[in-house]
Amino acid sequence: MCTNATTLPKHEDRATESRWTSEGFAPWKFACLTASSHCSRRRPEPPVASFALRRDLREIFRLTFTASRAQSRYLPRQADRSTLRQILLCGLEDQVSFGKQCTRVEATALGATAHFADGTSAAATVLVGADGAGSQVRPSLLPNAQPVSLGYSAIYGRTNLNTTDHPLVPGRLETSGVLAIGSPGKTFFFTTMAFRERPRDAFRRFMCKPPGRDQGDYVMWAISFPDASLPAATARGGSDALLQFAKEQAREFHVALRQMVDASEPGETLLVPLRMTPVKGWSSNSLTLMGDAVHLMPPTGSHGGNNALRDAALLGRALQEAAQGAIPVGDALARYQQEMLAYSSREVRAALRMLRLSLTRNPLIRVPLLKVLPVLHPVFQGSDGPVAVKRSTPKGDSSDH
Q1: What is the pTM (predicted TM-score) of this model?
Q2: Which of 64, 79, 136, 151 is nearest to 104 (CA)?
Q3: Which structural domain range is residue 300 located in?
Q4: By Cβ atoms counted within 10 A, which residue in 258, 321, 333, 399 is the most buried?
């Protein structure tokens, strides 16, 4: 009944990571069939924390998440997007088409039709635009709701945890999401992806075809900076040029963060413009949107992936009711849209507030944040102070750096 309008480009997945909260984890757990052992997840278990730090890694504040054993499934945790996506696609090979580019969609008397660049089309009762920030479905529903630049971009990278002789991640931060605030307009974020189970072993249990390369534990990092500071030639120069620019931007941060960038894997660097989409609503009996296609937001707070999973669970329940004849399809889509826009608009505002706070140039905010809070924080929460890290050298390299 429900046809996903997204057409997935046939390419090798970049290994990226999402940080799930309870809102996103519930539908993820459902999608993964049963208990958490079926999906790769971070170790160890609680406590889990999110840190805000200065660029010298002195603590500004932390949020610590604890729970009983019964409630531990609701703790924030990481998931590798590539692994999760491949597991969820297992068994759907004949239902998902790759390599097609959707150019436009249209509502019809019987539902909706998607048109593709190769001249083919596909008709469905309901067509769901889950095709991300560059959605080709959104213009048909919301022609004036195009992504708006926030004036900043981020370079994402991935660093294998086994590339150096010494630990890359300071011990007290290895199970945390960490945001380090640098000079005005610049931040450094990282988090560790440590698999509870090797992805290759999980694919075998699910009887899925394993990927060509086995996935190992890694650190996902991202450096945010003003768009104006990125040379146009670098933006067009590919992964190597972006990595070199990231190394230059990381020079002002603690040596532990610089080492993550220096040891980054070639070809795993990606430029992501930070944007948001202003959406107020729409009316359609056959077209709808989910994920970044409808509520694009900056990554601050890790709300994007969680909201996309929440959208999928909510829309699935609504369409199931329609398929069972409980309500008309149009009413099911309207109910989904109303609830989805209510919670996603709150998350967009929260992500924007966090982005503006972390990148602000206002000294009336930066001085209390970076000078006063780090002094007061240990009194109330017992900060460990700045982090001391031994300089790491690549394996097999005994030279003095």
Answers
A1: 0.79
A2: 136
A3: 2-359
A4: 333
On whether residue 224 sits in a domain, the answer given is yes
pLDDT at 227 over 90: yes
Residue 347 CB coordination number (10 Å):
19
| Per-position DSSP letters for 275-324, written without gaps between them | EE--------SSEEE-THHHH---STTS-HHHHHHHHHHHHHHHHHHHHT
Torsion of CA 10, 16, 19, 24, to 10 degrees: 0
- Please tell me the total count of domains within the chain: 1
- Among 65-69, 194-198, 338-342, the range scoring the smallest mean pLDDT is 65-69
Do 172 and 53 contact (CB within 8 A), yes or no?
Answer: no
CATH code, domain carrying 133: 3.50.50.60
The two beta strands, 77-80 and 17-20, are: antiparallel
Exposed e or buried b per residue across 253-290, where buried means at least 16 C-beta atoms within 10 angstroms of its C-beta: bbbbbbbbbbbbeeebbebbbbbbbebeebebbbbbbb
On whether residue 391 sits in a domain, the answer given is no
Tens of pLDDT, residue by residue over 133-174, are 989 899 988 988 889 999 999 999 999 887 666 678 877 777
**Length of the chain in residues, anyone?**
401
Print burial letters for 191-226: b (CB count within 10 Å at least 16), e (below 16): bbbbbeebbeebbeebebebbeeebeebbbbbbbbe
Angstrom distance (rounded) from CA 340 to CA 27: 14
The two structure tokens encoding residue 64: 């610590």
Spatial separation of the C-alpha atoms in residues 124 and 287, rounded to whole Å: 10
In the structure encoding, which two tokens stand for residue 344, read together?
Answer: 């996603």
Beta bridge partners of residue 129, listed in sequence order:
289
Would 109 be classed as within a structural domain? Answer: yes
